[in-house]
Design goal:
heterodimer; A: six-stranded mixed β-sheet; B: CV3147-like fold; CV3147-like; seven-stranded antiparallel β-sheet
Chain lengths: 446, 360
């Protein structure tokens, strides 16, 4: 059995799944500011039997989103850009809301180095400047974020810089690399990496608390624990420590996925009706549809894969209908799944033109989505077509790296399945193409 | 001739930090769906103004007629430009090479292409160079090719053109016609790794006053403040079809169906796009055809949406604007009219629309 938990701002939901059937569901009030405490309260509200048969705990903690919103518990980050004078037209953290920047920034530097589309465009890394920056922030920065120009094509200099920073500040220093975080768009990728680093200390503390609490939850001995991420899949606590930003947006993502599973629909529009606001997203092939470019978190443009959402007031029914219509990925009628505590309060007539589904257990869709999701991984890379370049070989490599990502996130290597997503052309750059792949699999049993 | 008066009227006119977002929004409208997302270069201009001060907007006729003007812009892929954000000394290197070729100092900067991401590039570099920005540009909008500009129509030479990047690599292209410049630049951009800074069609302030598209910067600012024409239609994107045009060298094309809402309920408008939106048709009748500017402005954000980001369900205002009169001459229509975008059947309708729509 699998136990899914969704720690919301008001309530914490827990669902116990046997196969794909919910055998128990509870809803308890959340403990303000204590995600792990809220989780424990919800889990203990389930009867000891069958709780004791749960071999996996999947949880949406939502601590990262709250920390960014409330600017609370964020680590001081040393922000290192590798690009030098060729990439200083916009400095690191330019345009950040002042309060967030003050809360996060321990210091910034932009050192010579960086790459390009082709290997010949690489500038050697200024190793001494990296060492000086590391030494200047030793004891002051709680984490580092490293972003090199064109690292999504070749992340070598970021790894090199990370080694130097650890040599200067200690082998256990948290150093996060932008090539693990996003694709081409230097500033958005850098911002996302800095947010990751800023969340790393808080997330590590919560992961520690969760690990310490786990034996006292009355689950099956050795039960695995996984956390939700923004693409509707799960990851291990170890992976969360390395990429905390992947959990931003995981709450809505899990609710969208859970709604689809509860309704037995892989493609639908999903509206999560809360007490004050309603969030509308789309489900495509069983997973949340991603937002387009231009996503912002805490007022900062970031390159993260975030579910596409429109938020409206819970009682603004006309806006809700418009948002739901807008989320339809094609003009053909897609069903609309209503979940959340307020789903029953939306009159059917405001949603004329929709095939409305209100599934059983819709009030705990987030917890259900957490319990019923696989571990995931993804990878993308921009390549140039050219004479002698075997695109198929690169495509295989991209799939292998997506698979490796899922395994690092905690999936069972023997049962991971990969699938390639459609190649995307890169506008105005003839011959260049973005290859993408995703991988999912069940967690590695202990 | 009246230069002091003109200087005074524009003397209070600056692009400053407060006006920058409006300016970029206006550039996005003038991009007609192309020219790259204007928000990519918005922070580049933001930091340049913060460090170097607001950029004075200059009437070309207020400068001495023989003063040297440097048109600027990025060429290549917007996706690469979003990664290679450029350096602070890039414009100075471009200017130094430009001045060496001409043996004269640059008096002002002009945008090669006001539409899309290049409007903010011109603001950023004028700020960095401490120069004024002409209230003019070479296109009045965005077009895919470098030679699709009104200076080409006026018979100005493209060279000497300078292509350079943030690492100092430099290429000078001279003794070419417009089509040949485009060929050279395309080849060079591959070697530049997908992005280069360019100055082409060098000119004097007098030539700019006579031949360039007048009022481009003030037009972008006004559009960005919401002072544009009333939308032809407000509604939602009800389908998006992406396809390749017929023929051996088929181009990427997009067909967008807009369904009117509210007072426009019941109306259907088809918007055709290549790199930019090139035609808007209602019941087979053209509402606007290239070289008219055609923009889909997101009702939620107020930003014009690039062609590649249009998708089902977006609520948009359809806004059209006439282009510079030079684009409606026979030569202008040959270079960048409907036939140049595979819409020969619609030739001749733009003049009619223009007569009905008046000038901006």
């Amino acid at each position: 059995m699998i136990l899914g938990v969704d720690v919301g701002p008001t309530n914490t939901d827990a669902v116990l799944l046997d196969g794909d059937r919910a055998v128990r569901a509870v809803k308890v009030p959340s403990v303000a500011g204590d995600a792990v405490g809220s989780l424990a309260a919800a889990v203990r509200a389930l009867p000891a039997e069958p709780r004791g048969r749960a071999t996996q705990l999947a949880v949406g903690l939502r601590v990262a989103a709250r920390a960014v919103r409330e600017r609370h518990g964020l680590a001081r980050v040393g922000v290192l850009r590798v690009g030098g004078a060729a990439a200083d037209a916009v400095r690191p953290l330019f345009g950040w809301p002042e309060a967030l920047r003050d809360a996060v920034c321990a210091g910034t530097a932009n050192v010579r180095g960086g790459g390009g589309l082709a290997p010949r465009d690489t500038t050697p890394l200024d190793r001494d400047a990296v060492a000086r920056f590391g030494a200047s922030l030793a004891g002051r920065a709680e984490a580092f974020a490293v972003t090199a120009v064109f690292s999504p094509v070749d992340g070598g200099q970021e790894r090199e810089a990370a080694e130097i920073l650890r040599a200067e500040t200690g082998p256990d220093t948290t150093v996060l690399l932008s090539s693990d975080v996003g694709t081409l768009d230097l500033l958005a990728r850098e911002n996302a990496t800095v947010l990751d680093a800023a969340l790393s200390v808080l997330v590590a503390r919560v992961a520690d608390e969760l690990t310490a609490t786990l034996p006292r939850l009355g689950l099956a001995p050795g039960a695995a624990v996984l956390v939700t991420r923004s693409d509707g899949t799960l990851m291990s606590l170890e992976y969360l420590r390395r990429q905390p930003g992947l959990s931003l947006g995981s709450g809505p993502a899990c609710t969208i996925r859970g709604a689809g599973l509860l309704a037995g629909l892989p493609d639908a529009v999903v509206a999560d009706i809360g007490e004050r606001r309603a969030r509308v997203g789309a489900l495509t092939g069983g997973y949340p549809q991603e937002a387009g470019p231009g996503e912002r978190i805490g007022g900062v443009p970031v390159s993260v894969r975030f579910p596409d959402l429109i938020t409206v007031r819970a009682d603004a029914h006309r806006e809700l209908a418009e948002a739901a219509d807008r989320m339809r990925p094609a003009a053909g009628l897609l069903p609309l799944i209503l979940v959340g505590g307020g789903a029953g309060g939306v009159p059917a007539d405001v949603l004329a033109g929709f095939d409305v589904v209100r599934p059983e257990h819709g009030g705990v869709a987030g917890a259900f989505g957490a319990a019923a999701s696989p571990v995931g991984g993804q990878y993308d890379r921009i390549v140039r077509r050219g004479p002698g370049r075997r695109l198929d070989a690169v495509r295989d490599e991209v799939r292998d790296l997506a698979r490796a990502g899922a395994v690092r996130a905690g999936a069972d290597p023997r049962r991971v399945r990969t699938h390639a997503e459609p190649d995307l052309p890169v506008p105005y750059l003839p011959g260049a193409v973005l290859l993408r792949a995703r991988a999912v699999g069940p967690p590695l049993p202990l | 001739m009246g230069s002091t008066i003109r200087l005074r009227t524009l003397g209070f006119m600056h692009v400053d930090a407060g006006a920058l977002a409006d300016f970029a929004r206006g550039c996005a409208v003038l991009g007609s769906g192309g020219g790259g997302p204007a928000d990519v270069t918005l922070p580049v201009a933001g930091q340049a103004i913060e460090e170097c001060g607001p950029v004075p907007v200059v009437d070309p006729a207020a400068l001495p007629a023989d003063a040297l003007v440097m048109p600027v812009g990025l060429v290549g892929s917007p996706a690469v430009a979003a990664e290679r954000i450029g350096g602070r000394d890039e414009p100075a290197r471009l200017r130094d090479r430009f001045e060496a070729l001409h043996g004269a100092p640059v008096a002002a900067v002009m945008s090669s292409e006001i539409g899309g991401l290049n409007g903010c590039v011109a603001v950023a570099w004028a700020a960095r160079l401490g120069l004024g920005l002409l209230d003019a540009d070479s296109m009045g909008r965005a077009f895919p090719r470098m030679d699709q500009n009104v200076l080409e129509l006026a018979g100005l030479r493209p060279g000497p053109a300078v292509l350079a990047d943030e690492h100092g690599h430099t290429v000078v292209v001279d003794d070419v016609d417009g089509a040949h410049l485009e060929q050279f630049a395309r080849a060079a951009v591959v070697a530049f790794g997908g992005r280069a800074a360019s100055t082409d069609y060098p000119l004097t302030a007098g030539q700019a006053a006579r031949h360039a598209v007048a009022g481009s910067v003030t037009r972008a600012l006004a559009l960005g403040r919401g002072e544009g024409p009333a939308p032809l239609l407000t509604g939602k994107v009800s389908s998006v079809r992406r396809y390749a045009t017929e023929g051996a060298d088929g181009e990427d094309a997009t067909g967008v169906l807009l369904e009117g809402g509210g007072p426009d309920a019941g109306r259907l408008v088809l918007v055709e796009a290549r790199s930019e939106f090139v035609a808007a048709l209602e019941d087979g009748t053209p509402l606007a055809v290239v070289p008219d500017v055609i923009a889909l402005v997101d009702v939620r954000t107020g930003w014009a949406v690039p062609v590649e980001e249009v998708r089902y369900g977006l609520r948009v205002h359809l806004v059209t604007l006439p282009s510079d009169p030079a684009w409606y001459t026979p030569e202008g229509l040959r270079l960048a009219g409907p036939a140049a975008f595979g819409l020969a059947g619609l030739a001749g309708t733009t003049g009619e629309h223009r007569a009905a729509g008046g000038s901006s």
